[in-house]
Amino acid sequence: MNSRIPLLSFFVALTLLVCIAPAPAQATTFLSNTMADILLNYTIVQNSNTYSFDLSSKPVVAPDNADPGFGFGVTSIDLTVNGVADTTDNEVMFYEGGYTPMGHTIIGAGGGLLACSSSNDCLTPLFDYLGPQLYTGSENSPNMSLFPPKGEVTLYDYNTYKASSLTITPVNTPEPKTIVLLALFLPLGLAFKRQ
Predict the structure, then answer these.
(1) Which of 101, 143, 174, 191 has fewest C-beta within 10 Å?
(2) What is the pTM of this model?
């Protein structure tokens, strides 16, 4: 029984150290280059249509999909349309703030995003929206934006100019502290159960 006390004391001390470690700072408008890569969920709602997809805050952009000074595209996006997964191989393109389409003068628009299926080669996009630039950095190595306080952004349909809302939120994943605690206490529980 005495051999259990030092082992228990070790695990309690280790748990306290893990739990008291400082928490990361809150995300700001633009995710920093030094910040860890996180998964962001993009949800666009316009009238009866809802589009949703997840994207890394630091997406890998193929050299052929980056157009410096204009924007970039990310392929193999799993897009959901009105709650149903679109099974085609989708691409989402993001425009930089200097992008102004012909004849379009929408205040606050200059960036935006477009989604299309590889099967139609973007001739008929699933959606095409104008709005603020949604990333910082170069088109070859972008850092995606996270807009506070709730991540809501107004977008405008490229063809109809109707407003829609874009919500950008971090995808919830288990915190490392939780995983560490499980990893620490599982062996401890097994050790006590054996004796």
Answers:
(1) 174
(2) 0.68
Distance in angstroms (rounded) separating the CA atoms of residues 31 and 28: 6
C-beta of residue 131 within 8 angstroms of C-beta of residue 162 = no
Q: List, in sequence order, every beta strand (DSSP E) within 4-140.
A: 39-46, 49-56, 66-67, 71-77, 80-81, 84-85, 90-95, 111-117, 127-131, 135-137
Q: What Cα–Cα distance (Å) separates residue 42 from each residue in 30, 60, 63, 146, 193? A: 15, 17, 24, 10, 46
Amino acid in position 62 = A
Say if residues 123 and 114 touch (Cβ distance below 8 Å).
Answer: no
Q: Can you read off the two tokens belonging to residue 22?
A: 């400082």
Predicted confidence at residue 188, as pLDDT, reads: 61
Q: How does pLDDT run across 116-175, given as a tens digit for each residue?
A: 876 566 778 888 998 888 998 999 999 998 765 556 888 888 888 888 999 998 887 666
Token code pair at residue 100: 């102004």
The per-residue pLDDT for 30 is 44
